[in-house]
Design brief:
Layout (H helix, E strand, L loop, with lengths): L5 E2 L5 E2 L2 H9 L5 E5 L6 H14 L5 E6 L6 H10 L4 E2 H4 L8 E5 L9 H6 L4 E6 L11 E4 L6 H11 L10 H17 L8 H10 L5 H8 L5 H13 L1 E3 L2 E10 L5 H9 L7 E9 L5 E9 L6 H9 L9 E4 L2 E7 L10 H23 L4
Parallel strand pairs: 3-4, 3-6, 4-5, 6-7, 7-8, 10-11
Antiparallel strand pairs: 1-2, 9-10, 11-12, 12-14, 13-14
Helix pairs in contact: 2-6, 2-7, 3-9, 6-7, 6-8, 7-8, 10-11
Length: 372
C-alpha cells in the first residue's frame, strides 16, 4: 500500500489534491464506505457530499454511513433539502464484505460506533480527512489531518479547486447543493467565520459563486424543537459559574435528543462574563446502553478544548481518550458500562445521575479553580 502524507514536526499530516487523485485512481470502480461520526454535523455531511462528487470520475460507488440519528434541526433540514443519500450503520453492518475500502471524514474513528467492526473486517483505510487534533495513529493510503483549518469542508473545497476532479457549475443543481452544504459546513465550524483561518475565507469565497443563498437561509432558519428548548431551560436552571466557566448537567436524555446538548452549550456561552461552557448529560442509547456525553464551547483564545478535555477526563484502559476537540469546541463520551441501568427505579436513576454529575464537576473544579 502506498501512503501519501507529509508529516510535520507536530505530528499532523497533510496531503495534496494531486496525491488524492493518485489514490482514487488506484481504486477505480470499487465500492467504498464513508464512515461519519455517529451524530454527523454540517461539516461532516457536506464533506461526504463533496467526496461523492470527487469519486464520480473514478467510477467509485460511495455509501455514506452513520450509526446515530439526525436530531439537530439544521442537519435534518440540510439532508432533506439537498437529498443527501445517508444510510444508518445498522443497514450495512452485515454487508461489510461488499466494500473494498473505507473513508473517514471529519473524524478519526474514535466517534464512530462502526469503526471497530470495520477494522475487524479488515477493510482497507483508503483515506482519513479531518481538521481535529490527531487522536491516535492511523495508517491510511491518503492522510490529511490539519487542525489549523477551521473545517473539513474547507479541505474538501480545496480538493475541488485544485485537484481537477470536476468543474463546479452554477447551472448544475447537484453542484449548487454541494456548494451550499460546504458553505454551511464552513460557517457552522468557524462561528460564522469569526474563528475562520485564511484558508476558510478563501474556500468560502470560492463557493460564493455556486451556493444557493436562499437554500442556506432556509437551513439556518430551522426552528428548535420543544425538546431542545426544554434542555436549554434545564441547562440554564442547573448551571454553576466559577471563574467565568459555566458548567451544567442536564440529566438523562433520549438517544434522539443528543444534539440538544451542544445547542444548550452554544446558548449558555452567550451569558455575560462567561468565556467557557460545558454541558453534559447521560444519553440512553437505542440498545439501552448509557453514555455520559458532553459538549464544550469557549471564547477564550488561550484555552485548547482538545488539551483541556484530554487532561481533565483522561482515557480508558486501552489508552483512548474520552474527549477531544478543535478550536473553540470539543466533546466527550464516557460509557456508563456496568452501571447502565435496566432497573426501573427512579430513585436509583437519580442517585446514579448525582454521582456522575458530582464526579464531572469535581474533575472540572480541579482544573478551573485548583486553589479552591
Amino acid at each position: 500500500m502506498q501512503v501519501h502524507e507529509t508529516r510535520s514536526a507536530n505530528g499532523f499530516t497533510k496531503a495534496s489534491p494531486e496525491q488524492l487523485r493518485e489514490t482514487l485512481a488506484r481504486h477505480r470502480q470499487q465500492r467504498h464506505l464513508i464512515l461519519l461520526q455517529d451524530f454527523p454535523d454540517p461539516d461532516a455531511l457536506s464533506a461526504a457530499w463533496a467526496w461523492r462528487l470527487i469519486c464520480q470520475p473514478f467510477e467509485i460507488t460511495v455509501d455514506v454511513v452513520h450509526a446515530g440519528v439526525l436530531s439537530h434541526q439544521e442537519n435534518v433540514t440540510l439532508v432533506k433539502l439537498t437529498n443527501l443519500p445517508l444510510l444508518r450503520w445498522q443497514k450495512v453492518q452485515g454487508q461489510l464484505a461488499n466494500y473494498q475500502g473505507v473513508v473517514l471524514l471529519d473524524n478519526q474513528g474514535t466517534t464512530c460506533q462502526g469503526w471497530p467492526a470495520v477494522q475487524e473486517a479488515k477493510i482497507p483505510l483508503i483515506a482519513v480527512v479531518d481538521h481535529h487534533q490527531l487522536q491516535e495513529p492511523l495508517v491510511a493510503e491518503f492522510s490529511d489531518i490539519r487542525p489549523d483549518q477551521g473545517a473539513t469542508a474547507t479541505m474538501l473545497t480545496q480538493y475541488l479547486q485544485g485537484g481537477g476532479f470536476l468543474q463546479l457549475s452554477a447551472g448544475n443543481p447537484e453542484h449548487i447543493k454541494v456548494a451550499t452544504a460546504l458553505m454551511h459546513g464552513i460557517r457552522s465550524e468557524t462561528l460564522n467565520l469569526l474563528a475562520a483561518s485564511e484558508e476558510d475565507f478563501l474556500a468560502a469565497a470560492a463557493l460564493s459563486r455556486f451556493y444557493d443563498n436562499k437554500l442556506l437561509q432556509t437551513i439556518l432558519q430551522s426552528s428548535r424543537s420543544r425538546k431542545v428548548m426544554e434542555v436549554i431551560q434545564r441547562a440554564l436552571a442547573n448551571r454553576e459559574v466559577r471563574n467565568n466557566f459555566s458548567v451544567s448537567g442536564v440529566g438523562y436524555l433520549a438517544y434522539g435528543d443528543r444534539d440538544a446538548i451542544p445547542q444548550a452549550a452554544d446558548f449558555l456561552l452567550t451569558e455575560e462574563n462567561v468565556h467557557t461552557v460545558l454541558v453534559f448529560g447521560i444519553i440512553t442509547g437505542e440498545d439501552e446502553r448509557e453514555i455520559l456525553t458532553g459538549s464544550l464551547r469557549t471564547n477564550k483564545l488561550t484555552l485548547d478544548p482538545d488539551e483541556f478535555l484530554k487532561t481533565t477526563l483522561g482515557c480508558d484502559a486501552q489508552g483512548r481518550y474520552f474527549g477531544g476537540g478543535r478550536q473553540r469546541a470539543g466533546g466527550f463520551e464516557i460509557p456508563i458500562g456496568f452501571l447502565t441501568g435496566a432497573i426501573e427505579d427512579s430513585e436509583y436513576s437519580l442517585r446514579k445521575w448525582q454521582v456522575y454529575d458530582l464526579q464531572i464537576k469535581q474533575k472540572l473544579a480541579k482544573v478551573i479553580d485548583p486553589h479552591a
